[in-house]
Design goal:
By secondary structure, the chain is mainly α. 66% of the residues lie in helices and 0% in strands. It has two domains: 73 residues, Orthogonal Bundle (Rna Polymerase Sigma Factor, Chain: A), CATH 1.10.1740; 79 residues, Winged helix-like DNA-binding domain superfamily/Winged helix DNA-binding domain (Arc Repressor Mutant, subunit A, Orthogonal Bundle), CATH 1.10.10. The N and C termini lie far apart (46 Å).
Length: 178
């Protein structure tokens, strides 16, 4: 059996090594689950590999790859909302990663309760630090939609945090640091 490789394999492999971790971190911020983030990232990178030879603007690969991750996440949520298991009030135990504070965990949990499209906007604007215009380009929507989804997403995040604070005895301020 011969090992057939395409002429762009080396170029794609370099891109993969350089960007896969950042794309996975973005996917994690969207879904809140490292395993699911890995699945989203792999699906997005597979889609990117298929169209790699057709990509004319290799200088815009990072933003295009981010767009594919976001759209893969949103498409998955549209498909899965009917099949997803029913949530309960009892949360499973979560392993805290070294250096992860309780506040950060509360923000991530609250972010998971924000609707997917609004969550995508919040992650792009505040985690990826994209402008309104850049976020609109990634999501394929207008600047006004990004602004309204940002406002609604922040309101939903604040409500979720308020519910979390009510459940935590000491309350406290919440922040996320990269």
């Amino acid at each position: 059996m011969t090992n057939a490789s395409s002429p762009w394999d080396g170029e794609f492999s370099r891109f993969f090594v350089e960007r896969a971790q950042n794309l996975r971190a973005t996917a994690y911020m969207l879904c809140g689950d490292w395993h699911r983030a890995e699945d989203i990232t792999q699906a997005a990178l597979t889609k990117l590999y298929v169209v790699w030879p057709k990509l004319a603007k290799h200088d815009a690969l990072v933003s295009y790859a981010r767009k594919v991750v976001i759209r893969t996440f949103l498409a998955e949520n549209r498909r899965l909302w009917r099949r997803r298991e029913r949530l309960t009030h009892d949360l499973p135990e979560q392993v805290a990663h070294e250096g992860e504070t309780e506040q950060r965990m509360l923000v991530r949990a609250a972010l998971s309760r924000v609707p997917p499209r609004q969550r995508a906007v919040l992650v792009l604007r505040y985690w990826e630090d994209l402008s309104v215009e850049q976020t609109a380009a990634v999501l394929g929507c207008s600047n006004g939609t990004v602004k309204s989804q940002t406002a609604r997403g922040l309101a939903a995040l604040r409500r979720a945090l308020a519910q979390s604070e009510a459940a935590v005895p000491d309350g406290g301020e919440h922040c996320v640091r990269r």
